[in-house]
Structures are given as C-alpha cells and as structure tokens.
Amino acid sequence: MNDQQNTRNFCIIAHIDHGKSTLADRMLEITNTIEQRKMKEQLLDTMDLERERGITIKLQPVRMNFKEYTLNLIDTPGHVDFAYEVSRSLAAVEGAVLLVDASKGVQAQTVANLYQAIEQNLEIIPVVNKIDLPNAEIEKTKKEIVHLLGCKKEDILEASGKTGKGVFEILEKIVENIHPPKGEGGKPLRALIFDSKYDTFKGVLAYVRIIDGEVRAENKIIAMATKQESLVIEVGHFSPDLAKTEILSPGDIGYIATGFKTVEDCRVGDTITVTSRNPEIERLPGYKEIKPVVYASFYPKEGNDYNFMRDALGKLKLNDAAFAFEPESNLALGRGFRCGFLGLLHMEIIQERLKREFEIDPVITTPSVVYEVKVKGQDEKMKIFSPLEMPDPSLIESIEEPYVKLDIISPSKYLGPIMELMRNTRAEYKNTEYLDAERLILTFNSPLTDVIIDLHDKLKSASSGFASMNYDFTGYRSNDLIKLDVIVAGENVDAFSRVIPRQNSFSEGKAVVEKLKNSIPRQNFQVAIQAAIGGKIIARETLKAFRKDVTAKLYGGDVTRKRKLLEKQKRGKKKMTQAGKVEIPSSAFLAVLRK
Known about the structure:
The chain is an alpha+beta fold.
C-alpha cells in the first residue's frame, strides 16, 4: 500500500506546439529514465511524421522515478481531432501540468483541454514555458492564466523545456500537490483503457490505468463494452519501451498484452475486468463509441492498385480504431474506398502514412459530413454519408446537418478581419470574452461543413497566423440544403455531386462549371457543362470544339464546293455530339474538389 502512496499520475496539457514533448524530454533526463546516449529530441513522439511536424499524434505514457516517488506521465495530443483520446487520458490521472507558451499566450486548445481537466476534478499545475525566448512575455502570459484559472500569480511556475530551467521545480510541485491514486487491491479488477495499439508479436496492447484489483499474465479478462474475452499474455510498464512485470496493482499505469486480434475489441474508454470475478462489476464512466465525423473517398490512381490499397488501409486500421473504410465504386474514378475520419488532420495523417509506408498516393474526393434526412412517411431518419445516397428531392421532408460550438482565440487587433471572414460563412455569433486588453475569445455556432473544409487556412491568413480555433460537436440542426449535380455533355457526373445550402447554390454552381471549363481538355465537338438542382439548370459553360479547316485543300472554283464541305463537317459534328463521351482527367476532379 505504501507503494501506492508514493505514486503520482499526471499528464501535460497544452495547445499544439507549446512544448509538451520537449518538457517531457527534460523530465526523462532529470529522472535518469533514459541513458544520455539514447536521448534524442521529442523522444516520446515515435512516428517520423510526429517528429517532422512537431505535433503529437499518438499519446505516449512513460514511468519515471523521482526521489522515492514513481511518476507516471501521459504525453497527450493537443489537436482538436483527438479530443476524446485526451479526455480518456485525463480520466487515467490525478493531476495535469497546464503548459502555456510565453511568446504566444493562451490559445484555443489550451482552454478546451483545461476545461476537460477541470471536469475530471484534476489538480492543475500552471506553467509558463519557453521563458528563454527573446520575445517571451512572461507577466502578460501569467495574467492570462490567472484570468482563466482564477489561481494566484505566485502559484504559476516558470520553465524552459529547451534549457531545462525550472523543470526540477515542476517535478517537486507534482509530488507535493498531486494526491496519490486511490484504489483497493482486494476488489475485482477494473482497468480503464486510455489507448490501444496493435503489436505484431503480442497482439493488441491495451494501455490501461488500474483503478481497482490486480492483473497478471494468464488471467482471463473481458472488455465490458465489446464483451470480448481473452487470456492475458503479459503485463508491464512503459519506460518508455515496454518493460515486462509480474503484476499491475491499483494506481499503476501500464500495458496489458490482451491477445485480442484487432483494436476494435479493445476500445478507448472501455473497462477491462477479470471474467472469473464478474458478478456485478460497474463499468467505469465516460465510455463512448468514437465515430468518424468527416468522410472522404480514396481512389487509387491506377485501377490495378485496388487490392494493394485495401491491404494498406487494413494495416492502418489495426492501429487506429477511429478510422473506418468500406469499398465503393464510381463511374468516373473506378473502384475505391469511402473512409471516415475524426477530422481533417486525421485524414491528412492517414493520407501521409499511405504515401510513406505503402507508397500509395490516392485521388481524394471532397471531405463531407454525415447528414440526417427525414423521408416523408418514414419515422426513422436516414444517415447520408455521400451526396449520391440522397433520395429524390420530392420525398425529402427535412435535411439536418451537424453543428459545432466554435471558439476562436485571437489578438484583438484582428477582430475586424475575423468577423468579416465569419460573415461569409453560415456561423452564428454568440459572444466575445476578453482574456486581457489584447486577446479575446470569440464564440460561434457553426455548421461543421463550413469549419472543416478550409476555415483553418482562411483564419490563419486573416490573423497573420496568430489566431487559433477549437470546436466541439453540439448536435444536428435542420437547414435548407439541396443536392447540386454536375452534367457534362448530357451525362450526370456523380463524383462532382455535393450537398450545399440553397442560398449558395447559384454561386457554387457557377464556380464549379467555370473550374471544369478550364480543366477539361477541348474535344472535336462542343461540350455543354451544366450545374443542376433536381431538373433545373442553374449555371452553364460551353467548351468550344476544335475546328479543322476542311476548306484548306480548295484553291479556287465555285463557292458551293466550299459550302458543301462545311455542311458535311457540321453534320459530322452533330453526329459526334450524340455519340461523344467526354473523358474527364483526374486533374479536373482535383481542381473542383480543392475549394
């Protein structure tokens, strides 16, 4: 029991690029967890992609020894797409180090992750990081933290993850302020899964926090949500490599090699317990099935790469329970896969990993969200993952789309450009809160579609890169939406169909046909490119035909000979228009899909 009294479980929360992983590196050095010769920057970021971009994609736990204490740290991702992973990591610990960059101040995900930590009743240790930077504004940042947390100014620690200054004081404060974990070894096992990954040799590894009871190799376990049973292969800690141990006790953070075959059986937020002692064990709170919110289709550039791509996506799914894919086919692009993601960063990561690990560069369709459609005469709402599944407009009673609460944190001098940008979306302004005289939080209710497509890039350009945003799903809301179809040479091209607000239909339709006119190569016959809603054409462009000079070989004679040849050419063009099929190159698809 004494061992449990000397354990401290904590995590580091911050906005992207505020120095979480660098601070973790210094902690590993000070506690001698890693030998100096093995030390490298961002040690806990194990993927090349994480190291290059300087972001944490997968959370990473590590166990350290400081004085007579055992410290378990979870380095969490900061991006909004992985908010659920962050919430489960926070549920696995008793305290959090809140890190704020002294040069940037409080940003959107700082606030979002802090609120999650407060909801879990965690002890919060505020730290101003990067104090070694020449443009660090320490006092100003402290004021923002006081405004946000309501703590005393003297309680805020100063540190530099790069130089190591102040890191020892943070470790001392963790030992002093964060209370030891509670839990009883005599009770039946309850372990919270806060992450899981697939290991080729050990099967699925569940990253767990032991709440009650004990677990050791050969125990028979069951995952309570998925009802999957298995024998434990081994248990251990993270140091940060996997270190096998005999037993995991209450308060421990470690891994269980479950013997499950897929991460689907071992979902984040689920509770693991022992099957032999399972009368009325209560599942740990907070579990929710994590569902994709953004869908896009991936198509191989070469048709014969289809099977190879299916295997590659299958391998990526082994490590990522939130990623979903299923086969689909398209007249223009051939056979491909409809893939579901947590957000656009998640999609970018999957795309990048496909390119790096499997050398596949797919053609990607416009990301879209899941709509709910109420059909006349039916009680159940239909879920629509792609515009192609949209029923006939005459049968639709209402269409609902997902909405989010959007928070934007920005220096107040960019308020004008940001409000102008938001006026061009369908977002509803809610309120403004000032962090101090120079920084503010703007809150909006916005359709998810408007946020995911390109709002992040536009926000960065409107604020010279200083603004940051965070969003939380709030529910579905009915809107006046319609399906826009694109017709090329009399044929409906399914891949260009999209669901849009009725008020934007004319501008969207015009933009699509103009882009296609510039992207489709000219044919030997005239091509009509049209945008339509139902049976009504709302925009049209005409692609001019190539014209061969059929009169070039004439060198004189009667004008009727010239007219005869031109009439013959005209009849031929008419015949070609009836039989002509326009080949649309993939560059045209990409031109339309990129807004």
